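Subject: Predicted fold for Low molecular weight protein antigen 6 PH domain-containing protein, 149 residues

User T.R. writes:
Posting the sequence so we have a shared reference for the thread.
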Amino acid sequence: MAVLLRVRSRTMLTTAIVVSLLTLGSPVVTWFALPPEIRAEATGPELAMVILILVAISAFTMGIGLSTVVATEEGVAISTGLIRHRYAWHEISDIRFLEGDPWAYIFTFRRDRDGDPQRRMVMAIQSPDGDRARLDAARLQEIWLSHRP
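User M.O. replies:
I've generated the structure tokens; pasting them so everyone works from the same file.
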């Protein structure tokens, strides 16, 4: 299965890395800035819970930052954090990235509860990436147009 296009938002990945470093680093710096007598009052379970929460926040942030879209001959795979969606080219009714949109969208022939076409965010193609995002969206749309029945 040859990969025709693989995209990841550079801006979102950079932001996720910075936020994760701050989320994990700030409490460590703060911890060592506290007087020893205050640090001594913290119990193991309290520290474990704080560490668990901070790691979970960082994992979630990095999952979003590592969002990708991969186009192959068979279709497209969208990965956003832990959520993955795969669509064959014939399942896609439109790919849009309009001026003012925060990210690209893939519309499918499936319908939601209101009868509207199902829409999926393609967070790997983000407007803060500027011209690169517009080119990636145009390339994805070009691949879709060449592969749809």
